[in-house]
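Internal tracking record. Fields below are filled automatically when a chain is submitted to the structure queue. Please do not edit lines marked as system-generated. If the sequence contains nonstandard residues, flag them in the REMARKS field before resubmitting.
Queue: standard
Priority: normal
Entity type: single polypeptide chain
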Amino acid sequence: MALAPTSWPMALSVLIPLPFDIISTVLRFWIRHKRKAWGPDDWAMLVNLPLWTVSTIATIAMSFSGIGQNDASLSTFQYSNSLRWFYIFQEPWCFTLVAIKVSIGFALIRIASGKKWIEYVIYTSMLFNFVVMGGTGFYLFFQCRPVQKNWTPTMDGECNDRSIQTVLSYAVAVVSISTDWIFATLPIFLLWNVQLDWRVKGSVMLMLGLGVFASIAPIVRLKYLIGLNDSTHLLQNLGNILAWASAEMNVGMFVANLPACHPLLKHAISQFSSWTGGSGSRSLSYGKSKKLGAQRLSRDPASKHWMELEEQPEEGRKGHGGGSKGSKGPPGVETRIYGDLDTGIRGSMDGGNDGGGRTSADGADTVITTLPDSNTVKKVYLDPTTGTIAGAGNTSSTTDTTKLIVECGTIETATILEVAKAAEISRASKQLTFVDVPVSGRPMGAQDGILAFMAGTNHKAIFPVVKSYLSHMGKPDAIFLCGDIGAGTAFKFINNYPSAITSLAASEALNTGSKMGLDVARS
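SYSTEM-GENERATED OUTPUT FOLLOWS
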């Protein structure tokens, strides 16, 4: 006879989300390592990994050991074995919740845009989680003396009254619910007074819904916690309690990994678009709007060359790194394109010049960049010899022209704030304005010139100028001023959640279909 779970709710609460948790965790660590963007949220998840593994194994074992059945129907071995696995589960489960909340908290701090009160709220919430959940974990470890009495009630020794564990379980649930709601609603304050269209509002609502959904498990668990005091039906009552406890842990694990997984999913979508005819280019563009024509720029990660190409005037709206459709751009302007190019493209261009961030700023009133990661942004902008800030500051000091610098990449807020601070220091004696404007819309949007932009700047008067440039790459009604510097990056981070969820779900669906015999390539 096939082995069947004694508690189907508990088995399903771990087996259904398990592949999503494993895939998202592996992707998280790989992406952060490759992008050299490791942060405190990743350390928290790394510490959590062995705790989560033990809790998951214990949950699977409990779902087959007898938990969920009437206590009187179990043999002495089944009863003792179930309690042993329950003891193995409960301590690491408490610390797993702490690590997950801390990881989500540090991820929110990445996009807090320097708002100190938001950071204080996050740190306070993390502290409460550590004290209540961590304290409960330590208590459960020592509640019986000797330890073996936890799963062998008839042996000599003593245990604290089980009502203490019940009270602590209620406290853990209340703190968990409160933290989930706090972390879910903080993005509202990051986006306060930002005018959004329905698509963007939908993204925010989905983001908030994730936090609300994560709080459902502890809310439902509250109903069953009183069953911990019933010693005659303890294992039967634990079936419902632990099913929701496992669901809370595994949903939280997945939600905590989502932000880190987005870059790879975005790359996969870009590759798919290139196979189906979309533009998969990723160029670094500087200057005023002009259509590039048929020449497409690609980035070779191993190349350290920056190339300059003088473009001829041509009608049309310029796509983000490739030719596109649209309205006529401003006549009579000169556009220079710099890109980190591969050898083939570099050899096909006439008049290419090695350069860098400083070179681009020396010869332009407006510099627009789209850089792939934080390290590249720091190198291009902050290098005292070759950086864009140095180049812009040098030319601004000798002219009355205001330099406008716009960064359209999607990176963490901390790097944007660092560049903005350097620009402000330079601005003290020179006319220099920095704006962060992350872009959204994928290669198809770039090809059609309908990208969306989310701007953040401390100098609001410059936004109409920024919008006039970006309107040649995107729709004017999809270019938003989100707030101070860093707000655009913060909002793009939040906007990444829905696409990450959809892509992960689609990947898992294709994987399941393949295992069931479907020809995924043909379908």
